[in-house]
Design a protein that fits this description.
Layout (H helix, E strand, L loop, with lengths): L2 H19 L6 H13 L2 H12 L3 H27 L5 H14 L1 H6 L2 H25 L1
């Protein structure tokens, strides 16, 4: 599969998960569909990591590393800010929650926050291992 196709699939799944994350109380069928799509959202970057390792494409592996680290960092920061702002106005909480849904769309669509963050961390750790392995081979 081409890299451009995988990027498009990843982006499409990410946007779809973001849209599903905005549904407040989904029907059981929609909840199951959103969980499945949230898990499938991690397949394109995993395949891209495989391709990056296979073709020694350091730029691709660095991109996955940076996106994974950025997603984990932004999710952590937004979660902390959202929790701290619980005593504030409802509008602020709604705005922060909306930003969190967009930044961490697979997490919000999955409903299992730990699983989504674990999968981002897996992508991060695998990309770091690939980069370390490739730098030793040089």
């Amino acid at each position: 599969m081409k890299k451009s196709t995988l990027y498009a699939l990843w982006g499409g799944l990410f946007i779809l998960c973001a849209g599903l994350g905005f549904i407040p109380f989904p029907a059981p069928a929609v909840k199951i569909l959103s969980r499945i799509l949230a898990l499938f959202c991690f397949l394109p970057p995993a395949w891209l990591l495989y391709l990056g390792n296979k073709t020694q494409d350091r730029a691709l592996v660095k991109l996955i590393r940076n996106l994974s680290a950025l997603s984990l960092l932004l999710t952590l920061v937004l979660l902390v800010i959202t929790i701290v702002s619980a005593a504030g106005p409802i509008l602020l909480g709604n705005i922060l929650n909306s930003i969190l849904i967009i930044v961490s769309s697979p997490m919000m669509a999955c409903g299992n926050w730990a699983l989504s963050m674990f999968l981002w961390a897996c992508l991060l750790m695998v990309s770091l291992q690939i980069l370390r392995k490739n730098s030793k081979a040089r």
